[in-house]
Write a structure and sequence with these properties.
By secondary structure, the chain is α+β, with helices and mostly antiparallel strands. The protein has two helices and ten strands.
Length: 133
């Protein structure tokens, strides 16, 4: 009986210490993109979305559709290869698309604050800010 109680106590402590990841699943719209010190607002009058499903993400920020696999570990997104359609996009829509896809290379960190999701590329040079739809 004593071993059972100790075993249950150990399991309880391990469960309490387990890392809990934020739930980013759902659909988001692009609010801004760019470097940490130079955020540009998303192009006006352009419908954007990024959707995180269970281990799959996809989106379109104005021109090409893109998607890939991901996992969440703490505050890190570990990303598989991102695939995209290949239409030529210029101007603000092309810029925001390139900046968005740049964030989703290999891994990225994120901060979820209410209905705002900020994702930063692994090298820290690219940031996108999303709002829950």
């Amino acid at each position: 009986m004593k071993k059972l109680v100790i075993g249950l106590l150990v399991l309880f402590v391990l469960a309490a210490c387990a890392e809990v990841s934020a739930d980013i699943r759902g659909q988001w719209k692009l609010i801004s993109y760019g470097t940490p010190s130079d955020q540009k607002p998303a192009a006006p009058d352009v419908e954007t979305f990024i959707e995180f499903k269970v281990e799959q993400m996809n989106g379109n920020v104005g021109c090409n559709g893109f998607g890939g696999e991901y996992t969440v570990k703490g505050d890190t997104l570990e990303l598989g290869p991102v695939m995209s359609t290949m239409m030529f996009c210029e101007g603000p829509v092309g810029e925001q698309e390139m900046a968005t896809i740049a964030v989703f290379q290999e891994s990225a960190t994120f901060v979820l604050d209410g209905d705002t999701l900020t994702i930063t590329s692994a090298d820290g040079n690219s940031v996108i800010v999303l709002a829950r739809k």
